[in-house]
Structures are given as structure tokens and as C-alpha cells.
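Researcher: Let's try something more involved. This one mixes different molecule types, so please make sure each is placed in the same coordinate frame as the others.
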Amino acid sequence: MTTADIRDLQKAKTSAEPMEYPTVVVAGQLLGLPISRVHEVFVTSEITSVPLASPEITGLLNLRGRVVTAVSLRRRLGLPDLEDSQRRLAVGLEHKGEPYGLLVDEVGEVLKLDPKVMQPTPGHLDARWAGVAQGVHQLENRLLIILDVDAVLEFTAERQAA
Amino acid sequence: MDDLLIEFLTETSEHLDIVDVEMVRFEQDPNNQAILGNIFRLVHTIKGTCGFLGLPRLESLAHAAETLMGRFRDGMPVTPPAISLILATLDRIKQILSALERQGAEPSGSDQDLIGALGEMAVNLSINEHSVAAVQAGTNGTLPHQVLERELKPGEVSLDELEKAFREAPGPETTQLSSAQSAPQPPSLTRDALVEAKSGKAPEVGEREGASAKVQTIRVNVDTLEHLMTMVSELVLTRNQLLEIARRTAVDHGYKVPLQRLSQVTAELQEGVMKTRMQPIGNAWQKLPRVVRDLSNELSKQIDLVMAGADTELDRQVLDVIKDPLTHMVRNSADHGIESPADRRAAGKPEKGTIRLSAFHEGGSITIEIADDGRGLNFDAIRKKAVERGIASEAEAERISDAQVAKFIFHPGFSTAAKVTSVSGRGVGMDVVKTNIELIGGVIDIRSEQGRGSTFIIKIPLTLAIVSALIVAAKNQRFAVPQGSVQELVRVGSGSDHMIERINGTAVLRLRERLLPIIPLAKVMGLSEDDGASEGFVVVTQVGPQRFGIMVDEVFHTEEIVVKPMSSKLRHIPLFSGNTILGDGAVVLIVEPNGLARMIGSGSGDGHLATEGARDEAGSDEDSATTMLVFRGSGPALKALPLSLVTRLEVIDAAEVEWTGGRPLLQYRGRLMPIVPCDEAMVVKSQGSQSLIVFSDGDLTLGLAVEEIVDIVEDRLTIELVADRPDLIGSAVIRGRTTEVVNLAHYLPLVAQAWVQAGTSERRGRSVLLVDNSAFFREMLGPVLKSSGYKVHMAPNTMEAQQVLVSRACIDILVIDLDLLERSSFDLIGQLRGTAAHATIPVIGLTLKHDPQQVALARKLRVSELVSRHDRRGLLAALAESNPVMEQAA
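Model: All components are placed in one shared frame. Result:
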């Protein structure tokens, strides 16, 4: 995401009431989250893995005294893990009163976009992606998928309670 | 004003606020049974509380409002005038409450205008709605079924019962109601009764007001505490980081001392904040003796309330949730459970019935039992009622077991009480209890035997509580095992006495001639494929009748942990009961021993092993058992220390030991820790690894160098003989082996004179009676005193203390907690001063607060010294200096 993109966007959409979307990158794809749902962005501390948990859950981490469930956005989207997992970035969210940390590859800028010009998710998208996408924004030279935070965190937990 | 009244005022105004809001909601949505149920419950609670506090005006108002709402619940149409009337009643209740708060007594006045209107409304509306004749006659139980076919859902109270309730319920309006149709004016008779009732109570209340005008506690929002706790945790983490930095930098820029201070303050702060959340369950029981007393008067029964385990600590939040259900259940037991003295005599039972309340930690949960020796459940009546209510078909009701039948009482509105009293029987009850308990993830069960009594068993998972946990590691991942279920630790593998053996590939451990099933933690957790590991530690665990060993690679220390509930995404995993943040900031999962036990139960061919433990350890006396850390010094002899004295076990690289002036020191957690060999022949190694037992107390830390840590065992500490060696207290048989019990006090002066101020020899043999209602403090202080050479007797309350004093006249010093036992401590001391045997016994009071009144009282009773409960050194010093007190002229 270049600053030029943003400027273009802002120029084009100043008329409507813009919404802010913090952006993240996972496997090269730019994704946006509704700002109202994003509490913060943080570098993860040591993550304690939870045996027998569903694969999406990377583990638990301590965020200023709160135990936060770390969910890998890559795994949620059916992508392989990142090779280098030393310094991981996470987006702090809250879902049904519980804190979550969504692990992402990179964190981008906050974009101001008009929700009215959001396009519906293309029908032929992979089911895993389609299930968590609210819609797509067409930026100058790339696409921004807006994530539905609740859908992202609504995966079945019971899968392998062995 | 007394505490009960203050609590009642705060609670009731909270309840009323909710009722106000809910009432308005209900008017807009009259078909919402949930809202109505909620309002009904709250008003019922207010009424009940007023009843036993002796507040007749409030009680009769609430009663009348409740009756009208009962009609709504029964299906009567909700009209705006009816709602307005109830709201007006609520306002009146608030007025009375504020007067009560100001004056400490209910103001005089009459509420007959409202009560009359409420009664009239209730009667008129039901007349409009239903057959006048049927309601007035109130004889035919089947008639309402016909009339109210649609509304009467299972569990609802039928019309005739309500009518009966309406008539039989005591309350000043009884006469009013029966004549409501003809004369809505308040009869003067009722008012007289009211005034009379009031005047009887008023002086009592007024007197209390004068006694303590000032409120010593404040209510703090739990969120505030939660936030505080979070902040403190963060502070701890930051402190740890700073300490880490300080450890790495060799140069002291002058900040190490302040840092040390910061570290200490942080630890104290953390402890304090944790403590604010924990409360003994006894706090929730405070009201109960009075409730039972009042009830036994009201019902003309003789009831004894026995409470055990009042010091079991619970998270404040849990306590709040279970408080009301507990009160309710005790009332139920008194009302329905215990029979009248005549009936009891006829049944061959003592006239006085007993309600026994007990609380204890078990496995990963807290269990609360409410048992009565009353008539038990009438299973036939419940079956009949269940069929009547359509909860079960007749055939079903016949088929199912009594135990299942008993569970019907948890259905909403289920009451078999023959008559409805102001105490119970309105069908607001066990369902609410059940809902409240389930809200915090607990379960409730009932055991009942007709003619013998009923027992309610409430199990609350420890999710919100603080527990002591053993930190272990499997494949480099740490886990916490709740200490409550841990029985002992056994080291296995080469070089130890124990080996893991296999039967058809399944690991077992031969432990004292028994086979113990072994669960390899790493394999269960999916951290490793093979369960071939045979080096490490076995955590011997007991869950109910099952005993098994958890195989781990490493065992660290025990830590008081705050249990945080698992995320909802992880709650389905049976192996964990929660998670926690350790002192170093890492998140660690708490192993649920029950979950592991179930794995054994389901494992093939292990069934016979699973039941193995039932007969074990039956004879052991838990109270006097001490957990001992067994280790070895230079020789082959086993040595032991009470584990409660030990702060940490460490294995260090011997090369890290520094020698200053011929004395070994170690840089440990940011400070220098002296190392002392555990016996004279023992040499602190200069290479390889060195095992250390770390003790710390305030500023002072000491590392005791030992050859190896052998085991942690729980056994009775009976010291067989006093050795003439200063480094030993004596020797004891621990787990069948002669073991030298090390006198820690011997090592401490080698490090710092301040630890112990006097020699140990002269006080050896003096016996101390420690009275403290907290098991934790007894556990902590007991071994400290023992290891300092005192004979220690312990008692959880003054009653038992008295027994000890009578049976063992040789008690030399009394150490007694003054805060928690409050008055009874002073009473005991006062009594002792009056007896010949103990008139001069030195008494050391343990306290936390600096209350001048307390100090004055203590001085009057010639308490030799007041020591902070946490000040172990202070206590030892006070003990060393204590001499029989001089007789004083009164």
C-alpha cells in the first residue's frame, strides 16, 4: 500500500462518509478490519500452545495480564504457517466478551474508505475466504478484502476433542 | 447499625433499582415470563430478608406486591394501573428504606392504603378473569386446570394453590384480603398489630445504631479490582524485566537497592490485591445462624446449625453468586427438611434437628454440602406432583429411580409444600438456586433418604479461585497441576529407587507394593509420540477413588496461581480446567486431574488399576500430615525439611558459584545468595551441577547445597528422638525410612544473625498452641515453629483450642489470631485469665490491622505481644522472649 493509493482514494471518496479500516497482510493479500473491532496491534510475547486445540488456535499469550487466545489468520484461511515465526504481529480483538489476538504477517496503514463502494465478495472465492469476507474494496492497484471479524473467530472448537 | 442491616440496605436498593427497570420493561412486554420471573424473585428476596430482619412494614408491602405479581405469573392480564400500583409500592419501600438508613429503625406509619389497593387489585382482577365461585371456594384442585389450560405450563403454580397461598400466607393484610371485596379500607386491628410488632423490635435496632456508627468497609466494584489486578500483573512483569537487566549488568549504577525495594513492594502489592478478591466462605454463612434461629422460632422447631470449613476461600465473585442460593437452601432445609419436635420424637430421632453446612476443596473444585437429618424427600409426593405438572408421564414416574425423582425439585415452580409460608413454598426456589450455580459453571446434586434427611451437594469449579499448584514440565512445556489432588512426588529412572515398568506397553509404577497407573503427560498432551520416557518424576494424584501417576520430565516449585477460565474455544478440552499467568509472565495451562482420570477409565485394560486407590491411605490422619522434602547430603542418610519452608528447588551450574572470603555465593535473581552446605562433610561443588534448596524470607535468601533432591512426601511428622547435633531437629520415620529432620534454624544464623535472635536450645520442648482459622496460615506457621524447636498444637477455632488446653495442660504459649476469630479470641483469652492453670500463660496475638480498640483490649487481657500475621521473624522473636505474664491487679 503506497501513500499514493491512499491519496487517490481520499480524493475520490471524500464525498461519502468514510470508514476507517486498519489493514493487515497475510500471504501477500491485503485485508482490512473494521476499526471499531480493532483494539490494538501488538507484537506477541511467548505463545503457550494448547494441546488438543483446534488448529486455528496457535495458543495463549499474556497481554498485559490478560490471557489472550491467539488465532492464526493463516491457518484460519487454510494457508501454511509462516516460516519465520520469531516476531509475530497480532491484532487485538474482542469476540463475545473474550480477548483474541489475530496473528498476521504484517500490519499496514489505516485506510479511509467509503463503505458504500464496497463490492460483494466474488462468488467463486474459496469457501474459507468467502466465509470470512464482508466484501472487497478496489484500490488503485490491489484489492482489499474486508474481513468479518465475527466470522473469522467463529470456527468450530469441537473438531478434535479426542 | 449492625452489619446485617447495612448489607440489607445496599443489597435491597440494588435489587429495587433492577425491579424498577424490569417493571417498566415488563409493562411493555407483558408476555415475557423471564422478566416477570426475575421481578418476582427479587421482590421475594426482599420480602424474605425483611422477614428475618424484623421489618414488618417492608415485609407486608413486599408481600402484597408479590401476591399481585403472582397473579400476573398465573396469566392474569397486565394492566397499566396494576403496574403503576406496584411501582408506587416500590417507591414507598424506598422511602421506608431511606428512613431506615437514617434512623436505623423502620419509621412508623401505615401502608394500608397501598396494601389494600394491591389486595383489591389482585382479587378483582382474578375475579374478572376466572370463575368467582371456584376461586373463592378454593377447594377443588382440578378446576384451575380447566380454566387455565393454556397458561399452566409445567412448573407453574396452579390457581388454587396461589389462592391458598394468598389466604394462608401470614402478613398483616390477611384480614384485609378476605374482606377486600366489601371493604377496601384498612382495618385498624392490623395497624395495631403492626405498631406492636414494630415497638417490639425498635429498641434493639436503636441500640445497635449507637454501638458502631462508622462503616469500616467499602464496596468496590469487582471490575475495579479486576483492573487493579491486571495492572499489578503488568507491574510484576515489568519488575521482572528490570531484574533481568540488573542481573546482566555487572556494574551497579546505584539502582539495585531501589530496585530491590520496588521488587518487594510489588510482591506485597500483588499479594494484597489477590487477597482482596478472596474471601472465606464463612462470610456467606454469617447470616445463616440468625436465619436458622429466627426460623426455628417461627416454625417451633429445634434446629442446630453446624458449619465446617468456613475458612475455605472463595473468589468474591463466586461467593456473591452462591450467597443467596445457600441462604435459600438452608431455609428450605429448616422449613421442609427438619420435622417438628413431636414428629422427630415419634420417629425415634432426637428432638433437635441438625443442619450441617460444610465446604472443602476437592480435586479441582470446591464442594459445599448442606445436609439435614430431617424427613428426607417424599418421593411419592414428588412423583405425583411431577405427573400433575406434566413433567413426567405416570409410567415414567413409576419407572425412574428415586435419585432421578429427586432432581424434579429443580424444576421451576416445583413445590410440594403442603402449605405456603412466608418462608418458602411459593415455588421460587430450587430452580433459581440451580440457575445461579450453573451460571458459574457449578453443578448441584441431591441425595436423600426418606426419614433420614437430605444432602445437597454443590460443586463449583475452581475457575475463579486461587489455588496452589505444582508447576511441572513435559517436553519443555510447563503445566500447572492443582496441589489439592497431588499426593506425593516420586522420582523415577536410573539412580532412583523407582522404575517405570510396563504391562503390555502400558506404563505402571510399583509404589509401596502397589501398581500405580502412569499417564505420560507429554503423550497425553500430544507433545510426544512415544511414552517411552522413563526418566523424570511421577506426580501421584488422587481424584475421588482413583489414584494414578502423572509422568512429567521436570518438577519446579509450587505457586499460588489465579485460575483464569479457558477461552470458550478451548473449554471443550477435558484436560484443562483453566490457565494462569505465572510470576515470570508466561501463560501456563492448568491440568484438570479429573480429565486425566477419565482417560484412565476409558483406557483399555486399565480398569482394574483405576479402582486401586480406593483402599489406600484410609487410615492416615490428614490433619497432622506434613509435606516433607526429602534430600540427601554428603552421606547416605536421608534428610528432610517441611516443604512449606522451601521457596524453590534449583539445580545450578556449579561454575556460577562465586567465592567471597571463603564463602560460596551465587548471583540469584538479581541478588547475592549465600550458599550453605547441608552438612559439614558436604562440599559445595566447583563444577558440574549443584542442587540447591532455596529459602527466602523477606530480604534474606539462603541456598542450602544438597547432594540430591530425593522426593516430596506427605507423612506425619513424628520426631523420634532429639539428636545432639545442632543441624538436626531429630530423626523421624518418613514413609518407612529413617530420615533426619533438618533444623533450618541452624543454618540461618550462619547467614544472618537477624533471622533468629536467640539460641534454639532453651526453647526446645516448649509447646505452643496456634489458633488460627485459616488452614493456610496454620500450614505455614506450624512448620516454622516446629523447625524452631517448639512443640506445636494447632486449632482452627477457639472451641477446639479450649479442648486442647484442657486435654493438654502443658501448653506453654498461646499464639492466637485476633482478626478472623474476632471476639471469640478475646473471649477465650479472657476465660484463660480466669483459670488457675492458664492465668499467666503468655499470649501472642496475630493481627493485620492496627485497631486501637483491639490493642486496648489486648493490653487489658495481658496479651504479651501483637505480631503481624505475616511477620514470621517477628513471631519467632516474640516467642523467644515470651515469659509468663505477671498477675495484675484488676
